[in-house]
Amino acid sequence: MLERSLQVRPGDEPSRNGTLEPPRPGADWASQLARTLAPLARTDGFSDTAIDGVKLIASACSCPRTPLIYEPGLFIIAQGDKIGYLEDRVIHYGPGNYLVQAMPLPFECETLARPEAPLLGLSIDVDPLTLSELVHHLPAPADSHGRSPEPMAAVSIDAPMAEAVQRLADCLQDESTSRALGAGRVREVLFAALNGPQGQSLRQLVQQQGHYARIAESLNYLHRHFALPLTVETLAERANMSASHFHHHFKRVTQLSPVQYLKRVRLLRARVLLGQQRINVARAAVDVGYRSTSQFSREYKRYFGVSPSQE
What we know:
By secondary structure, the protein is an alpha+beta fold. The chain is 42% helix and 20% strand.
C-alpha cells in the first residue's frame, strides 16, 4: 500500500482560503477515465495520440526513482501513481489530482504500477498562444499577496477538470473526431487548469510580469542554447536583471542554481542521445556543451549512477 505521508509545500495541494470551490468529482471518475484510456495503451512510456500535444502515458510495471525533465504541460493520472522529487519537495500525482508543470524543471520521478493495474494517464502540452488567448477572456485574479506561484505542483482535480479530461479522452477513441474536436477539447482542459488552484502559475507565463515570467523566458532561452558556453551574466542580462538578483530568483523558482540547472539539462539531453545509440560518449559530450569528455563522464555517473558508456 502506498504511503501517503508525503512532505507537502505550498502549491502541492490547493489552499483552503474560505472561498467557494467547485465540487469534487465522484470517486469513480478515475476508473471511468482508465477504462477509456486502456484500449489506447499499446506501448510503455509517452506515446502520441491523434491530437497534437496530447500523449498517452502508460506503464505496465513500476519504475524506480529516475532523473528526468518534463516540458511545460498538465499530467493527469487515471490509474497507478507517480511521485516526483524536486530537491526537498515530494509531489504525489495519481488518481484524484493532476500535475501542473509550468516550467521545464529537472526532477526525479518514481512510477508505481502493476501488470493487472498498469499506469494510465494523459499529458497535455501547454501551448503559449492558446494559453494567452484563454487568459485574455478571464477576469483579473484575486490578490496573491506577492507570492510567486509554484512552477511545478500537484493539485486536487475538481469536477470541471475531471469532466473536461473525460471529454478529451472520449474524443481520442476516433481519429476523425479527434481531428474535428480535439483542439477544442484541449482548450477546455487548459481553461479548467487556469481556473484551478495553480492557474496563476500558468497565467503569469503569458502576462510577462515580474520575476517569475523573466525566469520562465530565461529557461526557454537556456533550453534552446544549452550547448553554448552560457554564463549567469549572459542569462541575467537577457532577463534584464543583475547577476545576483537573477541567481536569487532563478534558484527560488527552480530549486537549483543556474549552473546546476544547466548541468542537469545537458546531462539529460546527453542521455537521450546515448539512448538512441547513434553517437559515442565523446560526441555526446561535445553535442551538449562539454569541452572535457572525462568531466562529462564523471558528472554523468554522479547524476545517473552509471557511466555513459554503459547506457
